[in-house]
Amino acid sequence: MNERVIMNVFVPATGKEAEFLIPVDMTVQDSLLLICEILASTQPDLYQADGQADLVIREQSPWQGAMLNPRDTYRHLMRLGMISPGAKLALL
After folding, report:
1. How far is CA 16 from CA 19, 28, 72, in A?
2. Is 68 helix (H, G, I), strand (E, B) or coil?
3. Are 24 and 73 in contact (CB under 8 A)?
4. Stretch 76-87: mean pLDDT, rounded?
5. Beta 16-23 vs 88-91: how paired, if at all?
6. Whole-prediction pTM
7. What are the residue boundaries of the structural domains of the chain, listed by start?
8. pLDDT class for 7, splitting at 50, 70, 90?
9. Could you give the 3-state DSSP secondary structure of residue 3?
10. Could you confirm whether domain 4-91 is CATH 3.10.450.10?
11. Which helix (H) or strand (E) holds 23?
12. How far apart are CA 91 and CA 82, in angstroms?
């Protein structure tokens, strides 16, 4: 299956949000590499990828402020109840 999930990512460096459609079996680390590459290529004046990015939960929940483990898949994080489709994250 090619299941995907939409994540809403706020990028403080640009002051904007962007939605990304991410395969549920992709790790956070792999998605971060792609997200950073996309942002660096589409907004080079505002964002430069440095390989040091993290995703943090920014919506009101018991998990607010928690950093996503780079080794976890999105499927695993959804099973834990940390995120759900459309989750609001921040790229730090």
Report:
1. 10, 20, 25
2. coil
3. yes
4. 97
5. unpaired
6. 0.90
7. 4-91
8. very high
9. coil
10. no
11. strand 16-23
12. 16
